[in-house]
Specification:
The radius of gyration is 22 Å and the shape is elongated. The chain is of the alpha/beta class. It starts with a strand and ends with a helix. A nine-stranded mixed sheet has the order 7-6-5-8-4-1-2-3-9, sandwiched between helices. It has a five-stranded parallel sheet with strand order 11-10-12-13-14. The longest helix is centred in the first third of the chain and has 17 residues. 41% of the residues are buried. Helix 3 crosses helix 4 and helix 5 packs parallel to helix 9. It binds flavin-adenine dinucleotide (FAD). The site of flavin-adenine dinucleotide has 27 residues, from helix 6, helix 7, strand 13 and helix 9. Flavin-adenine dinucleotide binds next to helix 6, helix 7, strand 13 and helix 9.
């Protein structure tokens, strides 16, 4: 369908990926502003329930390609299925979440189709009817407006946290079943067992609330303060780098340029100064509550609410109050 926008929806067979739903919000905005139709593209096997979930959003259709070879991700089958659909339909854009899986797949899809790929976009602009894609450069010091010169479809990955999935507009869409022929696809890479590399590893990018702690906590024995707060607000615990370097928390809890990028609804920054390397990983949080004893701490520049004070006093008081009201 020319003049249309497709959004690839990742899933694990049971749940739709939250970054993909954020990308769908991006798609809804872009479709509305450019007058294009919007279609969710779902690949899988026995994933009709997920297709039905997608059909409850304000989109024109859910294109569901079912094939046993799409049950588990392989870039070979994924690329082939998507190329067949894009070649037949010729949409303007294929939006994809900037997930690890799509980082693996999208460049191959781009090479296979000979189509432009604009990665890690955070927005778009419309200029004389043309779509410009906005991406950060040099650790967000500059923003580039990217104009694609080649023929559509353009392949675009969208950074997590750029939109919020609860902004998805509800509606009703038809599910269109599509055949893809994957019989001759040769799988060159065999994926072994999928292992969680740390059993209790958290994917902070999916967390709705994060209590993040910094060097201001001073020693490991004080960590219970933040654990109690996290418990009361049902949050995951995150950290700045010094906390991880001191082994007070595992490396998978680090947030920032060399850790995870997060975009929860609520982010507590406790005893965190707000160095740029930390802020790039959390500034798309919807609401940021910073607790710091230094009124000049840069974290207050990105905070929605700032609490100036000693965390040893503020955090227990806040936990007590929240326990009463929650
Ligand atoms: P500090 O900067 O030491 O800040 C501690 C804060 O606690 C201060 O603002 C202080 O006022 C406050 N405080 C102290 N006592 C109290 C108290 N009693 N009550 C309330 N507040 C108090 N950092 C990351 O976080 N993530 C990254 O991914 C990351 N990657 C990096 C990559 C590179 C290449 C480099 C060079 C650095 C990276 N860093 C990263 C480190 C980063 O530059 C900062 O050093 C780090 O973020 C600082 O952590 P912090 O805010 O916890 O500590």
């Amino acid at each position: 369908m020319p003049e249309s926008i497709y959004v690839l929806i990742d899933h694990n067979g049971t749940n739709l990926n939250s970054a993909s739903l954020e990308t769908l919000v991006f798609g809804q905005e872009l479709a509305r502003e450019t007058g294009r139709s919007l279609h969710a593209l779902l690949l899988g096997c026995n994933a009709q329930d997920l297709a039905a979930q997608l059909a409850e959003y304000d989109i024109d259709s859910v294109i569901y390609a079912e094939n046993t070879r799409l049950e588990n991700y392989t870039f070979e089958c994924q690329c082939e299925a998507i190329s067949q659909i894009l070649r037949a339909d010729n949409p303007t854009l294929l939006l994809m979440a900037h997930t690890y899986q799509n980082l693996d797949m999208a460049p191959r899809l781009s090479a296979r189709m000979g189509k432009a790929l604009v990665s890690d976009c955070v927005g778009y602009k419309l200029s004389d009817g043309e779509i410009l894609l906005v991406r950060k450069m040099f650790r967000a010091k500059l923003y580039a407006d990217v104009k694609v010169k080649s023929e559509p479809p353009w392949l675009v990955t969208v950074q997590a946290g750029t939109r919020f999935s609860d902004a998805l507009i509800r509606g009703s869409a038809q599910v269109i079943n599509r055949q893809v022929d994957l019989g001759s696809v040769r799988i060159n890479r065999v994926t072994g067992e999928t292992v969680d590399f740390a059993k209790d590893r958290v994917d902070l990018s999916q967390a709705e609330t994060i209590v993040a702690v910094g060097r201001g906590i001073k020693k490991q024995e004080n960590m219970d303060l933040v654990r109690e707060l996290a418990d009361v607000v049902s949050a995951e615990i995150g950290a700045s780098r010094p906390v991880v370097d001191n082994d007070w928390l595992g490396r998978d809890r680090q947030i920032g340029s060399s850790g995870q990028t997060v975009s929860p609804k609520l982010y507590f920054a406790i005893g965190i100064s707000g160095a740029i390397q930390h802020v790039v990983g959390m500034k798309s949080s919807q609401c940021i509550v910073a607790i710091n004893s230094d009124r000049n701490a840069p974290i207050f520049n990105v905070a929605t609410y700032g609490i100036l004070g000693d965390l040893q006093e503020v955090v227990p008081a806040l936990t007590k109050k929240l326990r009463e009201v929650l």
